[in-house]
Amino acid sequence: MEFVPNNEAKKFIESIWYADHSCFLKDGAYKIIIGISDFHLKSDCLYTFSEGVYISEIDHQPFTIESGSVILLSIKPFVFKGVSIKKFLNVFNSVALSQIKESFTYAKSFETSELIQELFLNVVLDEAKLDEDFRSILNYPLLKFGNVRVGEMCRELSLSRQYVHRIVKSNLGVSAKGLIDIWKTNNLLVNGSNMSPTFAALDSGYFDQSAAIKSFKKEFDIKPSYVLNGPKKDKYAFAVERMRKRFDGYYDRVE
Question: What would the pLDDT profile of 159-208 be if each residue is shown by its tens digit?
Fold first, then answer.
C-alpha cells in the first residue's frame, strides 16, 4: 500500500508505503526503513534486524523483505545534504518510533502516514538545504532517462567534471557515472515491459542488448529478464512500477 506525501512533505519524501514481502531495487533514492517489529531482509544472504529505524543508502544492493512489519520512505537524495544521518536516526529511534508503533497498531493507513510525515518534517525542515547545483545534477540524467554522458551533462549545466563528481560522491556515495547508470538501468526496466529487449536497450542508451544485460547484472546481480519475465516476476512488479512513476514525473523534476 502506497501513500503520496502531502504538499509540505513531498519536497523531501517521494513516497511512503507499507512493505510486505516486497523487493526493492537500487533506484537513486535513500530508503528509510521503519521496523515496527523485528524483520528480515534478504540480499546476498538473510539479515535480521531489531525493531527500529534504518537507512539504506543509494548504492545498496537490491533486497527483499522476508518477514516483519515494515514501513518504507523513499527520500529525495538532497535531504541528507543538510541533515546528519546519524542525528536523524537518533531522533527517530529515541522519539518517533514509539509514536509510529502506537499509531500503526490502531490504523495501518492514512493516519500513520500523516504522523510519519509530521515527525520527519520536525527533524529536517529547519536543517535541510536545497543545493540547486546538486538538484540539477540529480535531475538532468533523470530527465534524459539515463541516456546521457557525464561530459554532456557537465556542458549543459555549465559545471566542471571535477565539481560534479565531487558533489555527487560526497552526498550519495556513488560517482556521477554511477548515478547515471542507476537511471539508465531503471529506464531499461521500465522499457523492458513495453518493447522488445533490443529496442529497450537502444532506447536506454546502450550499444546493444548484450551491453544492457551486462550493465544490469553489474548493478543488480540479476538479469533484466528475471525481473520482467522470470519465475518471481510478481516480486519485482512494485519496484518496476515505482521506477515508472519516477520517470513519469513523480520525483523532483526541474520545470
Answer: 999 999 988 888 888 899 988 998 888 888 888 877 888 888 888 888 88
Short-list 119, 155, 240, CA closest to 189: 240
Q: Name the CATH architecture for the domain at 2-124.
A: Sandwich (2.60)
Amino acid at 92: F
What is the architecture, at CATH level 2, of domain 132-250?
Answer: Orthogonal Bundle (1.10)
C-alpha dist (Å) from residue 74 to 39, 111, 186: 18, 18, 15
Three-class SS string for 1-39?
A: CEECCCCCHHHCEEEEEEECCCEECCCCCEEEEEECCCE
Confidence of residue 107 (pLDDT cuts 50, 70, 90): low
**Contact predicate 83/30, CB 8 Å:** no
3-state secondary structure string across 94-144: HHHHHHHHHHHHHCCCHHHHHHHHHHHHHHHCCCCCCCHHHHHHHHHHHHC
Provide DSSP, 228-244.
Answer: HTSTTHHHHHHHHHHHH
Find out whether 14 and 251 touch, Cβ atoms under 8 Å: yes
Domain ranges of the chain: 2-124, 132-250
Torsion of CA 224, 253, 181, 194, to 10 degrees: 20
How far apart, in whole angstroms, are the C-alpha atoms of residue 255 and residue 248? 13
Contacts of residue 27, defined as CB under 8 A and 6 or more positions apart, other chains included, come to 74, 182, 186, 239, 242, 243, 246
Burial letters for 107-128: b for 16+ Cβ neighbours within 10 Å, e otherwise?
eeeeebbbbbbebbbebbeeeb
What is the grid cell recorded at 104?
A: 500503526
